[in-house]
């Protein structure tokens, strides 16, 4: 049999995407380098009309030309090892596709190396987890445009479909752009999750709400402008009980893991000089959460009694909803600002509106207001910051006081809400024509003769301060 596409890596993601492709009518052959994995997946995939090749050679040889192979293996060294084994079996014009969570620099390097051999290389972000892989993920492919066109039909068929029927996949740009966009997606995801977690924490401690009450609030929010996958699952998590009737959330250790993409996003922001305060603070909160013993010692040294907000509960919840909405907007504005900068520096010509549209379904940060982001870039393709768009400007102007109210209550009542406070600081700093950095530059010139620029004349200047 001649197959339309091959999938290497039979973990959950590879297995589910292979099933997805088969269910959409494509002939799929798979392979895994471990004998026991191939054996364990044999019956499962056979029921889905997906074949498992007995050898790497037969796997490659049975693919129709030009050959297209999707790799879903561990990022980094394992991906390099896979390429080393597969590339010698390919011909000019064939394409390797990396669907893992890879650093974009590695993807750029591999694209250059394989292009020199006449082999196309696509780095593709895949969002949606194992459920998305099976039923429709959001896909972010970057690499040679001609290579994407060879697999476009497959990807459009297996991708999630938005409410308007459009597939949640689009060609992103050259070399590492696809994995870069996925990295930013994940960075935004970190901040989005942290903001929601802080909202839950505020309800629990400042308003003394029960899990069921909080679940009802998040469910209500999900019916409005905050409609999103993460809000939806938060409502479900809050009310979920185990077989003994205990709320599972209350039994979970307050230690959040991470796989690195949030950290990569923060590093990239530092590299390009774009502030990503909500994202980086959200990464650091996860780091702080892992310091359980140290937090216990400090809590004993500095006892904290989180206070209760003495105000109309419904009014406070309305403030919290508005504060969350604005903070999420600040988070997205930071992420898209970095995408714009990267597009210019790396010459990717990223279509920011299209990127927002492929995140509407299938991915973790899918949300209703992504269509508003697309409209913002449609209205002004050169938009530098989302909060300058007329629609979002109106939202921020009308509701910024709610964010300040929640931030003030959090500080007054000793309730940690670093992401919300970061949103306030970012907004207040960005809307100042002049900030405090003239003092910093003066200090640098004082102790290091680093010079400074002036507001009244061009050039570099130094003062003999002593």
UniProtKB/TrEMBL annotation:
Tell me the keywords, alphabetical order: Gluconate utilization, NADP, Oxidoreductase, Pentose shunt
Question: What reaction gets catalysed by this protein?
Answer: 6-phospho-D-gluconate + NADP(+) = D-ribulose 5-phosphate + CO2 + NADPH
Task: Indicate whether Plastid appears among the record's keywords.
Answer: no
User: Domain 6-phosphogluconate dehydrogenase C-terminal: where?
Assistant: 178-466
Give the InterPro entries listed for this entry: 6-PGluconate_DH-like_C_sf, 6PGD_dom2, 6PGDH_C, 6PGDH_Gnd/GntZ, 6PGDH_NADP-bd, 6PGdom_BS, NAD(P)-bd_dom_sf, Pgluconate_DH
Q: How does it assemble?
A: Homodimer.
User: NCBIfam families, per this entry?
Assistant: gnd, PRK09287.1
Q: What's this protein's family per the entry?
A: Belongs to the 6-phosphogluconate dehydrogenase family.
PANTHER family, per the entry = 6-PHOSPHOGLUCONATE DEHYDROGENASE
Q: What is this protein called?
A: 6-phosphogluconate dehydrogenase, decarboxylating
Q: Which organism is it from?
A: Salinicoccus halodurans
